[in-house]
Amino acid sequence: MKVHRILALAATACAATLAAAESPEAGHGARLEFRTIPMERAGGTEHLVMPYRLYDKLIVTVWDPIVCGQRPSEPSALVKGEKILIGYKLSAAGAAAKSCTLVSEFTVSDLPKRDLEVHFAGGAEPYTVAKMRKCPSYHPHTSDLWECLVPDTN
Q: Residue 146 carries which DSSP code?
């Protein structure tokens, strides 16, 4: 009787482990590195999101129009289905009405091998979407599409 219980528990544990291993989001260990360069200049009103992918690493450079003095905090990257959601929270805008541009770089490693749309939001704004395409002059030695992707500007 005890042997049957032990076998049943072991089978349940194995099934749960296998289900988690096959789920792309479950336990996915994507690592995030984040850097910023605040620039005081007459900022534009549009976001510019430029993603590049080499193998399992995604580097996204973002030009984000902000109010001078705002600082990013809590950078995040989350793989959700066919999207990678990146962003940060912004500190409250001060009394200064001067426009600045925050240039930030998100480096996300250990991504799954599948197409991902990049969605960026700095603060409470709606997401800006950037798509990627295969590098035009790159001839991979394998059939791995994710070896080299660049921004799709079309």
A: G
Which amino acid type is present at position 77? A
- What is the reported pTM? 0.72
SS3 131: coil
- Could you tell me the two tokens for 82? 């066919």
> Is residue 21 predicted with pLDDT exceeding 80?
no
**How would residue 96 be classed by pLDDT, with cut points 50, 70 and 90?**
low
From 60, 62, 64, 61, select the one nearest 43 (Cα to Cα).
64
In angstroms, the CA 100 to CA 111 distance is 32
Distance CA 2, CA 58 (A): 50
> What percent of the chain stands above pLDDT 90?
27
Helix (H, G, I), strand (E, B) or coil at 113: coil
The pLDDT assigned to 143 comes to: 64
Angle at 41 between CA 43 and CA 49, to 5 degrees: 45
Distance of CA 148 to the CA centre of its chain: 16
Neighbours of 131 (CB within 10 A): 15
